[in-house]
Fold each of these.
Amino acid sequence: QVQLVESGGGLVQAGGSLRLSCAASGGAVSSYSMGWFRQAPGKEREFVAAIIRLGTSTNYANSAKGRFTISRDNAKNTVYLQMNSLKPEDSAVYYCAARRVLSQEYDYWGQGTQVTVSS
């Protein structure tokens, strides 16, 4: 079973950037499709970005397109989310997740990292 630990969150001004990291142990990130999700207070968790298990194909929520970039470093067993041009509405707890081959849902989740964007 893979364990995921997010880091890199913090407080940033609007227009700034952050890079979130998701370090995996107990399994290789190259064996999973990896995703980032976020949840703001009082709101449901929402999809942000994903990268498929094989290759480098990525998928983004409309709110993230053009501003966020998901990437994976298999050698470091880590997935990243580069977030640029941050907005106050990006404030949320960000979660990393892993999905096994043929799984319909994400199977493993990290504990989350807080991102707060001030206006």
Note: Residues 70 and 81 are 5 Å apart (CA to CA).
Amino acid sequence: QVQLVESGGGSVQAGESLTLTCVASLSIFNFSVMAWYRQAPGKQREPVATIFNGGSTGYADSVKGRFTISRDNFRNTLYLQMNSLNSEDTAVYFCNGKYRTTSGEAWGQGTQVTVSS
């Protein structure tokens, strides 16, 4: 099992930026796709950004043009650059990876992002 550990969350003002980092304990090539999800209080967890091994990406409409997902295969690290943050981005952000060879997936423990308007 690959362990995922997120960091980089914090409290910021609206309009500011944050970069989230997710470090995997083993090669991220164990995953066919990696993603960032978020869960706001009282709401369901939702996908925010996705990146496939080939490098293609996808974003939720609410973050398009503001967030950028990327990966460093040598450092086994996933990133989420978040710009122009607003209060609706306040949530716990989770790193996720779907295994290549099984139907399982791995989750990080989450990192809190709080945006004050």
Note: The chain has a mean pLDDT of 96.
